[in-house]
Specification:
The structure is a homodimer of 522-residue chains. The longest helix of chain A has 17 residues. With 522 residues, chain A is of the alpha/beta class. In chain A, the strands form five sheets. A six-stranded mixed barrel of chain A has the order 1-6-3-5-4-7. In chain A, strand 11, helix 12 and strand 12 form a beta-alpha-beta unit. In chain A, helix 6 packs parallel to helix 11, helix 6 crosses helix 12 and helix 9 packs antiparallel against helix 16. Chain A is globular and about 75 Å long. At the A-B interface, strand 2, strand 5, helix 5, strand 14 and helix 18 of A face strand 2, strand 5, helix 5, strand 14 and helix 18 of B.
Chain lengths: 522, 522
């Protein structure tokens, strides 16, 4: 026993970095071999948070201990694929490994979990740490659940939104206005963006639209546009196209906008959490980060949409307006008819077909999709200082009917990289089944949620040609045996499961009379 | 496009099971290669929950996609180490893989996240799914945070406790009473169990004590006992010892008691969550599952303990009593002096030394440890119907002073498997530093939390000989330069960091006068 200070100076341990080919999605995971000397001496626990450093860069990760040299060797530290990519240090580089200093914002996270109200500085620090992947999935889950329970007040939503913008890149298009349109979603089809962008760009306004891929829906705008053109553009290329054509329809992933939003969504999704505060912060942060100055927001309202009552829609609208106002984003909220899907197709190929039919003024084009797109495009056009209030719709309609919108879409498609698409014969999945009406009557309700789920079961959006094609909409008369919709699937296992599921409940209700309560819009 | 029902019958895909040597602790993780045909067709998303089945067994896991054939091949499905062990199916067996049916209790989990009160049946279903690892870390985090926010009422705590017992094994020792003692923890040292068990067993009562290893403290009872004897006994051997000697001091991990508790603790710990309801359910479920009929519960109270005010201690006591009553466990709660560590040593070897000194009636034995152990052992002995209320202490003292407790401890050590331990020369870590008083005066406060943290930094409990040896306690006079405590560490990196940390704040306050407010116990 050596009671005094005989301190040997040991050379601090460095381990060689190894890339481990495991996709851990939004989480950073590190791997140490159980026999690694550093593991033995440092007292790391299972699931400890550690910090890995080299070349002035650092990354936090959750530690997994490994017993297999084929995965990581005793003198190595492994990083899972997303962590390795984020770290941006070459494999084989000697790195330092130590216990992670807790994120600077951890006290603020703990206070939110304890139910306290947080200040602007707290949110800035929190979102910075969230965007840098400094929190584990468990900590993030605790945060989002607490934010839901204690109902962020509207000031907190402003702070959260601002912080999410600050913690990532913010685009500046160097002109005004920069316009955009967004739907909160929750109804199937509804592919209006792919019509609004060419219409508004043809009018001459700047509309650099980036969109996401679907997370829980059967098709996102990026998935649908990908049937017609490339969407994964390098950011510089996207800027060129926007400057040349006034608009684009690209995937937003390359631009690193509001990355904290993506991290939080990865945790909210498995918990089916979507509180108003989180929804507002998520949507507005992405739009502000994308450089938008003016936004039209579509809130579909209906018994199977995200928002199910007018009072709820109004509360959400007020919250959006309050936050947008404080962050100097000009916002126009439109509450729309969400009682049924908009359009005929649900699924990327089917929706791309509908969009091209509208642009081509094809008589088979879904009238509701055309009408809604014109209405919303008109509201966007009214952000133009030279356009009289109320004239937007007519301008949009003229642009569409004259073929200028089609020409603009073709220019965008060519610039992004045209893909083979034949609107007469879109590449649909090879198996199909039809669901028929079981009685005479009229269609009295259509359940968005069931149809969305059915389209997911058929394989959309991963299988682009899968989905559901609707033949009848609300208020249509049907006779027993007539087809209501056809579902397409590529794999017979998907088809079988989807057909069983639809047999159980098709999503359609046939009744005697449909009260065509006009949907009063605000 | 094949519009009708040309369904090919495909042979359902089976993959070969592969053991992947990654320790994912409480979570089950599965690995599929990105090119695996099943991954491509089934539409699994990153982090999807899947179910793996074979031989009538099934397991749920979170899916990670892999790009490295060395980890898992295209026709294989990998399971992380703990998942593979839980699944109990041989590597190479063909298994079925599909989307996980959501756990049956998921609606109840969602309701708790939404803030609702749950019923008995809800908790039974929930804990069953928790114990079977059917929930992801994210879902569990949401559950524990929500249980904390909405303050489970006392009935819910009863339901939760009961459900945690039901979802695991329950021992029956086939006699009454079966006694036990537990401390809620939060103060350093306090190694009373290792004195109470031999005393009570020598008296003739059945005290089959299983203990845990430390999670956040510098030593658990299992870690400390392991300095003297084996603690990881096969369950059958543990039963034999208990029947022969009336007691044991074993590690509880082999008995599979209240497994849901371990799953929840793994999530609560990183979040530093420990609400009263969760604490009561955790402790009482383990004791009831272990077959205890009578329990003495020690609640230390002090400014740096877990419980910091008498009203808080009383509330906690009432909750323990209510739940124990409803579950027919006889409970005696003792609120004890938690203003400083109990004993001299903090860390496994140092605490084992203290325990053996008390059993040997060594004059160097810490008086506070001896006194507290006798008091609590006396309360346990008073569960004996033949013992008069108040006589327990004297009986315990006689057993200790006569050497019967030492003889019993030696018998238990021999039965479990004696280890080399010399109380005159315990195997302490090789480096040390001393912290001295900076002024003359008396010790007016000792911060448990700082000392616990310091002991962890020295490497306890993983390094058994590491820790802190206290020379002065509350109220003791000191002169400037006199040693307050000595810290032991094995690795110079630990020593360096610990010494820096202690230099910053030693945990001791020296003042002019110590108000020896007698700690009034209830």
């Amino acid at each position: 026993m050596n009671p005094e200070l005989a301190v040997e100076t040991e050379v601090p341990g460095a381990l060689a970095l190894r890339r481990v080919g495991i996709d851990t999605y939004q989480e950073n995971v590190a791997f140490l071999h159980r026999a690694c000397p550093l593991y033995l001496t440092e007292g790391f626990l299972a699931l400890a948070r550690i910090e890995v450093r080299a070349n002035g860069r650092s990354i936090l990760a959750t530690l997994n201990i490994v017993d297999d040299e084929a995965i990581v060797g005793e003198q190595e530290i492994g990083l899972s694929e997303p962590a390795f990519v984020r770290f941006r240090v070459a494999a084989g580089t000697p790195v330092q490994v130590e216990h992670a200093t807790p994120p600077a914002s951890l006290p603020a996270l703990r206070r939110k979990i304890a139910g306290e109200r947080l200040e602007r500085a707290d949110y800035l620090a929190l979102m910075r740490d969230v965007a840098q992947h400094r929190y584990s999935a468990i900590e993030l889950a605790a945060f989002v659940v607490s934010s839901g329970h204690f109902d962020l007040d509207r000031e907190e939503v402003v702070f959260l939104t601002e912080a999410m913008v600050e913690a990532g890149r913010r685009l500046d298009w160097r002109e005004r206005p920069v316009v955009d349109k967004h739907s909160i979603g929750g109804i199937a089809g509804n592919r209006t963006s792919m019509l609004i962008v060419p219409i508004v760009a043809a009018h001459g306004m700047l509309i650099p639209k980036t969109s996401s891929r679907a997370i829980t829906s059967p098709a996102g705008t990026a998935d649908t546009m990908e049937c017609l053109a490339n969407v994964e553009l390098p950011f510089a290329r996207m800027q060129e196209i926007v400057h040349e054509l006034r608009g684009c329809l690209a995937w937003g992933g390359t631009a690193d906008l509001a990355p904290a939003d993506d991290v939080l969504i990865a945790v909210e999704r498995p918990l089916s959490l979507d509180s108003p505060g989180q929804m507002v912060a998520s949507i507005l942060s992405k739009k502000i980060a994308a450089g938008s100055t003016h936004l039209v927001l579509d809130i579909p309202l209906g018994p199977s949409a995200k928002v199910r009552s007018m009072p709820e829609a109004q509360r959400l609208r007020k919250l959006f307006e309050f936050v947008a106002d404080r962050l100097r984003l000009t916002l126009d909220v439109v509450i729309t008819d969400g009682r049924q899907p908009v359009g005929s197709g649900i699924g990327p190929m089917l929706e791309a077909r509908d969009v091209m039919r509208v642009l081509n003024s094809d008589p088979r084009a879904p009238a509701d999709l055309r009408q809604k797109a014109l209405r919303l495009a008109g509201r966007v056009i009214e952000f133009d200082a030279d356009v009289r209030g109320g004239d937007g719709f007519a301008i949009a309609r003229e642009i569409l009917d004259s073929g200028r919108a089609l020409a603009k879409m073709n220019a965008i498609i060519d610039a992004q990289g045209r893909r083979d698409f034949d609107p007469e014969n879109p590449a649909l999945a090879r198996h199909a089944f039809v669901v028929e009406a079981l009685r005479d009557g009229v269609v009295t309700s259509i359940d968005n949620e069931r149809l969305v789920r059915l389209a997911r079961l058929t394989g959309a959006p991963k299988v682009r040609g899968a989905g559901v094609d609707l033949f009848r909409k609300l208020g249509d008369s049907v006779r027993a045996g007539e087809p209501l919709y056809r579902a397409y699937a590529e794999y017979s296992s998907d088809l079988r499961f989807a057909r069983e599921w639809a047999r159980h409940a098709s999503g359609y209700t046939i009744g005697d009379r449909f009260e065509t309560r006009e949907f009063a819009e605000f």
